[in-house]
Write a structure and sequence with these properties.
- The protein is α+β, with helices and mostly antiparallel strands and 82 residues long.
- It has a five-stranded antiparallel sheet with strand order 1-2-3-4-5, covered by helices on one side.
Length: 82
């Protein structure tokens, strides 16, 4: 089954996106050059799933998510409605 990807934000080579069928709790997927890095909860800015990032690499990504949280949450609401 094909999952629809909604790209909410691009920063340099980072891509922040949602999948269409994931509307239960707001979180964002983050890729770097189409390689999966992690998933982050948008309500508390913690890692939902880590795909191999080292501890020192997580902080800068969480900072980007937090600083763009208005954009990401607005996009989530646009897609999922709640």
């Amino acid at each position: 089954m094909y999952m629809v990807k909604h790209v909410a934000l691009k920063i340099n080579l980072l891509k922040f996106y949602f999948y269409q069928d994931e509307g239960l709790r707001a979180h964002i997927h983050i890729d770097f050059k189409n390689q999966r890095l992690c998933e982050v909860w948008l309500d508390n800015f913690t890692i939902k799933k880590n795909y191999g990032l080292k501890d020192h690499e997580i902080g800068p990504l969480l900072k980007l998510v937090r600083s763009n949280s208005d954009i990401l949450n607005d996009f989530w609401l646009e897609i999922f409605g709640e």
